[in-house]
Input
Amino acid sequence: MHDKSLTELRAALAAKECSAVELAQHFLGRIEVHQDLNAFVDVNPELTLAQAKAADALLHSGHAGPLAGIPLAHKDVFVTRGWRSTAGSKMLANYVSPFDATVVERLERAGMVCLGKTNMDEFAMGSSNENSHFGAVKNPWDKKAVPGGSSGGSAAAVAARLAPAATGTDTGGSIRQPASFTGVTGIKPTYGRVSRYGMIAFASSLDQGGPFAQSAADCALLLNAMGGFDERDSTSLTHEHEDYTRHLGQQWSGSAGAGADKPLAGLRIGLPKEYFGAGLADDVRASIDAALKVYESLGATLVEVTLPKTELSIPVYYVIAPAEASSNLSRFDGVRFGHRAAEYRDLLDMYKKSRAEGFGPEVKRRILVGTYVLSHGYYDAYYLQAQKIRRIIAQDFQEAFKQCDVIMGPVAPSVAWDLGAKGDDPLQMYLADIYTLSTSLAGLPGMSVPCGFGAGANAQRPVGLQIVGNYFNEARMLQVADAFQRATEWHRKAPAGV
Output
C-alpha cells in the first residue's frame, strides 16, 4: 500500500480493499519501524485512528472527496490541535495548540488522516534540517546525508514511504530543496495562495505552505484542498480558487494537432544562464541536461534567458528574512507561552534567560542580524536597499517570462551533502539556496521534480529539476511536471530498505 499514489489509495479505499483505519495502522507501523530517520517529532496513534474512523464513516456515506481516508503528515510549523506544535524549537517543545492552522483544518475537512508532526529546522531556519532541537533528520536514500531543510522531516517521510503525502513550508526554498535531496515532488505556490493562518511565522512576506507527494498529480490534488482565500490571513489572496488538476494529461495550449507523442509542443522552456555557470556540480548538471532532453522529445523548445540579479538574491534574502524573523520571534519571551527560564532576578532577566535557553544558535544568529539591519542608522542602508533590489529581482523574472512559458534549472548546486559537513560554515549553507531564493523573493510559484541521481560516491543521492511558473500559473506548471513524470520513472523510485 505504501507505494501507491493518492489516486490509487483512494481507489483502494473505494473498492474496500482496505479501510481508512487499516491504512492508517499500516503507515503508523512504518513510522515505528523507521524511527532511526528521526522524521517525526510527535505521533499520537489514538488521535490518528479517531480521524481514520471518521474518514471511514465519510467514505461509507458516499459523499467522500478524492482525498478522504488518505493519511498525511504535517510539518511541525503548522499548529495542530491535539499534537504538539514545536516549530522544531526548545522554545515550544511542549506547546499544544488550542486550534488548527487553516491548512490542517482544510485537509481534515477533506477527510485526510493526520499521522503526526514532522521534524524541521528550528523556526524553519536552515537548509539541512540539522538545526532542530530534536536532532537532525536523516536522508532515507543515504543516512549519512542531510535531507535538506527546513521541511526535511516531511520530505524524508514521503521519500521513505512513511506517509503518502505531507505538508511543508517554503520561505527561501524549504519545500523545493528537501524535495530535490530526497527524490520526491514538492511545490511552493504563488505567495498568498495557501493560508498562513496557524503557520508559526518566520518571515511573513516569504513564508508559503505547500505539499509533498510522490508525483505532480498528487500535489495537484493536495493543493486543491489546501489553497483558497482565508479571511483570517491578511496576506491571503482573493484570487479565484481553481482546480489544479484541470490541465493534467492534456496537450499544451496552442499545440492542437501536434500528436500524443508531443504533448508539450509549443511549450517554451527558459534556461537562465546564471543557473548553469560556475558552482553547479557536474553530476547535477548531467541530470538536469538529461531531463531537458526529455522535454525536447515531448515537443518543448529550450530558450536561453537571463536573470541578472540572481547573485544578489542571497544578500537580499539574508537581510529581509532575518529582519522579519527578529520581529516575529519577539513574541517568544517566556511570558505567555513557551519556554521560561527556571531562575531569574526580574522581568528583563527572565526575557534574556528564557530566549537564551529557548532558541538555538542559528535562530539567535538571524535575530541578531535582523535586529541590526532594522536598527536606527542601518534601516536605510540595508533593509530599504534590500527591498528595492527585491523589486528588481521580480522584474527580471517578468522580462524572462516574455520569452518563455516556464523557467527550469537545478534546485541546488549539488546533491545532498553529508551530515555535519557545513555546520561550522553558515555562509556555505546559505549559498546552497542560490537557485531558490530569487523565486521566493519574487513570490512566484516553483516546484521540484525528481530527475536523476548524483555520480560516484553520490550515486544514491537524488537530483531535482526546478520548474518555475509565472504568478497564478500553478496548474500549467503542474501540467508540465506531470508530462515529464508520465514519460519517466524517477518519481516512482524508492530508497533501498524501505
